[in-house]
């Protein structure tokens, strides 16, 4: 069994505060053996947001780091809901939305920031699921990346 908490500690990363809903929705929901995580944004450790449009205000590399930060926000929500990253069996699906200029074409590269984080926490077999990465003309508060995900819980 993979020890996600040990893997996370070895990465020496810091979780931001688990984001509070900005509308009428739940940050996550358990249904049977699945944990559905609502769209998360670029919450930093101090609670502020990374802002900007990829291809205009930030580079692809900066966008990838922003997606990693979204992944950290998702991990914070998971820990707040179930108490430990070890309670996740595997990543099922990730949907990444990229706030970018119309000519930007590297959406998958951006979302790799979160996917690589998940793979490093749960391992390649359990940390990589199916995925979509799409471009958007805007996202809430002008964040560069929003990601929602589906996880399978341990029995």
Structure characterization notes:
The protein is an alpha+beta fold. It has a single domain (27-153), classed as 2-Layer Sandwich (60s Ribosomal Protein L30, Chain: A). Helix content is 34%, strand content 25%. It is built from three helices and five strands. It has helices at 4-11, 60-82, 107-127, and strands at 28-31, 34-40, 88-99, 130-136, 145-153. The chain has a five-stranded mixed beta sheet with strand order 1-2-5-3-4, with helices on one face. Helix 3 (107-127) links the parallel strand 3 (88-99) and strand 4 (130-136). Helix 1 crosses helix 3 (107-127) and helix 2 packs parallel to helix 3 (107-127).
The secondary structure category is alpha+beta
**Largest sheet properties:** 5 strands, mixed
Report the CATH superfamily.
RutC-like
Helix content: 25-40%
Number of helices: 3
Report how far the terminal alpha carbons are from each other. 12 Å
Record field, number of beta strands: 5
Instruction: Give the class-level CATH name.
Output: Alpha Beta
Overall spatial form: globular
Question: Any idea of the CATH topology?
Answer: 60s Ribosomal Protein L30, Chain: A
Q: State Rg.
A: 14 Å
Spans of 5+ residues with little confidence (pLDDT < 50)? Answer: none
- Percent strand equals 25-35%
Overall pLDDT score: 96
CATH architecture: 2-Layer Sandwich
The tally of structural domains comes to 1
Helices and strands, in order, run as HEEHEHEE
What's the arrangement of strands in the largest beta sheet?
Answer: 1-2-5-3-4
Helix and strand layout, with pairings?
Blueprint: H1 4-11, E1 28-31, E2 34-40, H2 60-82, E3 88-99, H3 107-127, E4 130-136, E5 145-153
Parallel strand pairs: 3-4
Antiparallel strand pairs: 1-2, 2-5, 3-5
Helix pairs in contact: 1-3, 2-3
């Amino acid at each position: 069994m993979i020890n996600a908490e040990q893997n996370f500690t070895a990465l020496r990363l810091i979780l931001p505060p688990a984001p509070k809903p900005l509308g009428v929705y739940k940050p996550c929901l358990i249904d049977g053996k699945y944990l559905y995580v609502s769209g998360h944004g670029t919450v930093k450790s101090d609670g502020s947001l990374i802002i900007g449009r990829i291809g205009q205000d930030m580079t692809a590399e900066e966008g990838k780091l922003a997606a990693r930060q979204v992944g950290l926000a998702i991990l914070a929500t998971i820990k707040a809901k179930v108490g430990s990253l070890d309670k996740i069996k595997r990543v099922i699906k990730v949907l990444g939305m990229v706030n970018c200029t119309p000519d930007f074409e590297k959406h998958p590269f951006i979302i790799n920031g979160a996917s690589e984080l998940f793979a490093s926490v749960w391992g390649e077999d359990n940390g990589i699921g199916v995925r979509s990465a799409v471009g958007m003309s805007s996202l809430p508060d002008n964040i560069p990346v929003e990601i929602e995900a589906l996880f399978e819980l341990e029995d």
